[in-house]
Amino acid sequence: MAVTTTNLILGPATLYQGSFGAAEPADTNVAINATPAASAWTDVGGTMDGVKLVVDQTYTALEVDQIVDRAGSRLTKRDMSVETTLAEPTLENLSTLMNGGTAASGSGYKTFEPASASSATQPNYSAVLFDGWGPSSFRRRVIVRRVLNVESLELGYTKDKQTGLKAKFAAHYVSSAIAPLHIAEATS
After folding, report:
1. Of 96, 101, 141, 159, which residue is the least packed, with the fewest Cβ within 10 Å?
2. In terms of domain of life, where is this protein from (predicted)?
3. Would residue 64 count as lying in a domain?
4. How many distinct structural domains can be found in the chain?
5. Does residue 142 belong to any structural domain of this protein?
């Protein structure tokens, strides 16, 4: 197989957060490198060590006594997530990573307090979208429609290391008619 060097990808992605059910940008917008609507999606700022989509699929083997080989397989579990480290440890990003909470501001200050609901309360699902490079130096957009951050939150201060907030936005089922993941890629 010949190598198509224009299919090689290198470069950062821009990560956005929106509400679950936020209006998604049209697929045609990826071709013109348009940013998502500011009213629906918020740029979370700089990231460290990239932004990655992880899809972990579990296939269960089908077996019969009469043959030694695997007779077939069925997809029985799929875990998808978007993982990164947020380089800007703002209160807004803390709220995003704690799946909501209460933010307030006054003259010269801002505050944040995490949600204190019971364990039976429905969590505050959101959505994430990231724009990065695709083949032929065109853009690729990944939208994960219903997520929760499931990563532990650590806010550390160290003399010789930059503070970052690890994020793992786990994808969740949306409906039988709406896939949890959508990827659009420009072709021209």
Report:
1. 159
2. Bacteria
3. yes
4. 1
5. yes
* CA-wise closest residue to 45 among 68, 75, 12, 3: 12
CB 44 within 8 A of CB 88: yes
pLDDT digits (tens, 9 = 90+) for 90-99: 999 999 999 9
Q: For residue 94, give its domain range.
A: 5-103+123-185
Spell out the long-range contacts of 27-33 with Cβ–Cβ below 8 A and sequence spacing 24 or more. Answer: 27/141, 27/184, 29/141, 30/131, 30/139, 30/140, 30/141, 30/184, 30/185, 30/186, 31/138, 31/139, 31/186, 31/187, 31/188, 33/131, 33/139, 33/186
Could you give the C-alpha distances from 149 to 129, 139, 167, in angstroms and in order? 14, 25, 6
